[in-house]
Amino acid sequence: MQNADSTEVIDLANHVDTSRTVDQRHRIIGAEDSAPTDPGVCGKFMTVCAWALVVITFPFSLFVCFKVVQEYERAVIFRLGRLISGGAKGPGIFFILPCIDNYARVDLRTRTYDVPPQEVLTKDSVTVSVDAVVYYRVCNATISVANVANAHQSTRLLAQTTLRNVLGTRPLHEILSDRDAISKTMQVLLDEATESWGIKVERVEIKDVRLPVQLQRAMAAEAEAAREARAKVIAAEGEQKASRALREASEVISESPAALQLRYLQTLNTISAEKNSTIVFPLPIDIISFFTRPREPRESTKLAQQNQSS
């Protein structure tokens, strides 16, 4: 039973590896047009000659046959112009046959591409200059070598055109305020387009949006006018609230004349606390009116009271 189970597991693993290899070859342009397992009579003869050359020149042939790639690199080997089964080799040491094998070294590290400023006409007919940064890496070394002549150059050119196409469908206020959504849209579009090249676009960031000088002045004037209008509205509201508060205060003071005297004394206390050499004390008008009113003699007042009592 154990032998049967182990045999089934091995068969399943072989089937998975075969399916992965077939899927990988179907993703490579032109890989399905030929049978890579049958090199032909000429190919077999050249392979035998290469092995014979390795044996004859041993051990000097080891310096030519063994190659090393770093942890962040992969080697795509072509034997007689055909891809060797198993995909890219590495990291570490791998073996090639002289004269018939050729390999391409692919770097898998993330690369940064600074998109040069692009003159873009927005949806609302405004010309702006926009630059961005694209972070990408090679996710499949075999496809990046077999499907496109220069994967990095193709990705960079596509990033420039995608930047112009995406920004051309957005108005100016969205470009200035919604950069995150534009960056995500560009990342999705670039990732879908470069998948067949073995490239993975990890991140896209818009660096700067440059506006024409005349447009900057017009926007600054518009913003300044809007701020002045808001300031005038706020000042008018403050005056309205202050007038209401003064009206309420005058009503309170009119009900109690002593409140006006207390207010004057409070003002005098405030002025004296500021270490002023000259103190101006306002004289209440009510006091002046009190002294200017005609006063009746006391005797006439007493006689009138006596008459009333009798």
TrEMBL record:
Keywords: Membrane, Transmembrane, Transmembrane helix
Transmembrane segments: 45-69
The keyword Cell membrane appears for this protein: no
All copies of domain Band, residue ranges: 64-223
Localization terms from the record: Membrane
GO cellular component, one term: plasma membrane
Primary location group: membrane
InterPro entries per UniProt: Band-7_stomatin-like, Band_7, Band_7/SPFH_dom_sf, Band_7/stomatin-like_CS, Stomatin_HflK_fam
One Pfam family of this chain: Band_7
Record's keyword annotation contains Membrane: yes
Domain of life: Eukaryota
Protein family (similarity comment): Belongs to the band 7/mec-2 family.
PANTHER family on file: BAND 7 PROTEIN-RELATED, PODOCIN
UniProt name for this protein: Band 7 domain-containing protein
Species: Aphis gossypii (Cotton aphid)
